[in-house]
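agent> Task received from the user: take the single chain below, predict its 3D structure, and emit structure tokens. No templates, no multimer pairing.
agent> Plan: (1) validate residues, (2) run structure prediction, (3) serialize to tokens, (4) report one or two observations.
agent> Step 1 OK, no nonstandard residues flagged.
tool_call: predict_structure(input=
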Amino acid sequence: MLSGERTSCKSRVFLGLAGTLSRKGYSKGSVNIVADLFDHQRNGWNLQLVQSLFNPIQAKEILSIPIASSGFVDSLVWHFERNGRYSIRLGYKLLVNLERRVIRDDQSTNSYFFPPRLWVKTWGLQIQPKIKVFLWKAIFNALLVKENLLKQGINIDLVCSICNKAIELVEQALFLCDHVKAIWFSSPCSYKPNHAIWKERNKVVLEHKQPDPLVVSKHIAFFLMEQQQEPPLAVASQSIPMQKQFPSRWELPPVGILKLNCDTSWKLDVDLTAIAVIARNSNGILMHGIAERVYCSCPLAGEAQAMLEALRFAAAMGISSFIIKTDSATVYSAMVNSHKDVDWEIQATINLMRYLVPFFGQVHFSLVNRGANSVADIVAKLCLKNLLPCNWLVDTPAEILNFLYSDALVAL
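)
tool_result: status=success, residues=412
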């Protein structure tokens, strides 16, 4: 996250990510600090300038970095932690874990060292038996990943079935695969083996289904909320009361209040992320909508960007009282709890939204089930696939109309 005003384009901090600027760019003296790469009128990156100075891979990485508005300073993040903060304890822990790596042989049970008492703690967890068995298998390298199948004499291609980049070990299947990394970054849970990831991997391998990290991360979030058995907090700026339940279907907003549903659609093999905002009134009528493709580093960043666009839309339209609905538990929690650590991937966007909220009259943030966010979801998916016509608000496609009518009927 950065404002770009204190970071030189020649510094190791920036060049370590981006590589080097072209000599042509430097000779003109037009690019000295990172802020020179911004489009200040749009409060975003200067797309043409970045793409002209860097190769496509580097440009994509740069364009995915969230930009903070003026008033925020550049900050460095420790990407091994969700909050981006480095400490000596965490650095030492990382080094110890790296040193504990051992070479696999016939007697080894995993590529990482685990204390002998760990399996005792695993079986003592108060969780479902099938989850307990899964954790035990993950810890002791007993999952049927491709490497273990080969050891059992099955002639099989060892490459990961999802990313096709590395040998499918347990670590690759649960942590290192690009698809899995996307799930972890967009999920509110800590960095631990999760049964939902393994189930998604099996669907891809056995049923040849298309992987969708955003769907899996949302399943994890809803599972965690059910396990906690606590109603989610719903607060707002100023005088909006807290919600008492977790909506699983779309509901009509109060008279005179606009409801803004926001969502994102993201794929590993697509350079851009699609975000959508759907505005409906107390009669369930579609009043306006936003659908666009943006650069985002992960699904979580896309969810935050979609909510930011909802706030910008309200400001542009002069709307002072409205409701924002999201199905991202992480983004929602960051907005309603100012004291909670925020994932570094969305820190800049969250800071900007927190800055904007007090300028409105009444803003109510609400976390909903994905079923209550279906219109924004389908619009984002169509936008990502380039199947959304330019005049979709006037001549609305049948796929969107079906969800609009369904929501209206259920809400009445």
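agent> Step 4: summary for the user.
The longest strand covers residues 286-294.
agent> Done.
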